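REQUEST ID: PR-0412
SUBMITTED BY: lab tech R.K.
PRIORITY: routine
TASK: structure prediction, single protein chain
INPUT:
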Amino acid sequence: MSKKIRKILIANRGEIAIRVMKTCRSMGIRTVGVFSDADVKSLHLGHADEKYHIGPSPARESYLNQEKILDVARQSGADAIHPGYGFLSENPQFVEAVEQSGATFIGPSAASIRLLGDKTSARSVALQLGVPVVPGTIKALSSADEAIDIANSIGFPVLLKAAAGGGGKGMRVVRAAGDLAAALQLSKSEASSSFSDDRVYLEKYILNPRHVEVQILADTQGNVVHLGERECSVQRRYQKIIEESPSPAINEKIRAGLTESAVRLASHVGYTNAGTVEFILDGTGRYYFMEVNTRLQVEHPVTELRTGIDIVREQIRIASGERLSMTQRDIRFDGHALECRIYAEDSASNFIPFIGTIGHIAHPSGPGIRLDTGIGAGSAISAYYDPMISKVITHGTTRDEALAIMLSALGTYEIYGVKTNIDLLQWILADPDFVAGKFDTGFLHRKYRPEMFDGAPPEVRDLAAMVAALLHLRFEGRFRPGTDGHDPKWTARRAELLG
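STATUS: complete
OUTPUT:
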């Protein structure tokens, strides 16, 4: 039975809050924005119909304070809450508290988050279904001695991972038994600090893997679809900085296996709303289940541009009790999309975040370019939150087109007042191995040298401009960015998402 959602509180900040608000506006739904002391002048507040202060700058006293969020929902009369990503998006207690308050949580159920958001239980489900899983533990480690015994049985190197979270927090590669006890203690400490849960598990470390994930949508009537895969292998400190769809690493046979496994897993547990099933691929093309992200992903725009499907709109429809607006047969995959995350950080100093105020900013625009941001001139990059400035997303009919547009976009991006990773991104995109699609999660670790970015950004820009020009020549006369050139319905949807 469907229920009309009239007002949504977005329990988040910055670019993701703005992104959700834009879809709400297109659906005629009013929005409520929240802000901490550090975000008094945040751009997302200008997109909200109503705005409420929720506390001091530290996230634990504002964006992570469940009672304050729920109190604003009551005051404003919001009948639903969208968590965005991060913060409370994968907190089952918050989901239950929202539902007990009488509001609707726009995301998966608390039961699904507990089952799949916990990496050890998700691995157990995958094993039950016969989905390939990296060898390792199903339960959290109880001691260093147990970890050493298991590591010796499956062979080094091994990977320690936090059971309750992601983003590289609590993750450590261990290459020898003598290093395992200390590494386990550090992982447990970081996991406790980041997720208030110190459980850590262990798995075999697959050397030089590809990181590929599948976007799924599932409604409350049991319908589950996939929206294709995304390649997320270019990472620094286990955090993604470049994503693309489709993956240049897989063929149709592997793609069919990945997407079928993702849909089967979601169907088996009765999953609802948006989610991402993540896999790694070894050098032989074999894939292994890794984890499920029970929320909207940062990189969801690349999927939107390839399919013409507004994922946030579908999230809201599903939370309202409506059926998915499409079947698997309806979904079309057109062209290629890339996303680059722009961070305020120093590429010459091992990616240290750069705190400061944006003095001037001129975002790239044009055919085939989408930009999601919550930062403008005068915005402060603070120590309280993630230093991401924006996401640049490009779409073309081929990977070469999307890559050429991205290089051109980054070449025109102007940001003054803080250091950014734009020079790093340009260098990666112009690298011959990246251009050829030959990279893995160790790509940046093997090639990055801090001194390459110490006072030499003009050389990086020149190289990027040259590669962009060469890529443009490959499709000269055939370039139609941001459209598929066939079905007006899909062309219009994609154009709307680009805008």
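NOTES: The two ends are 33 Å apart (CA to CA).
REVIEWED BY: pending
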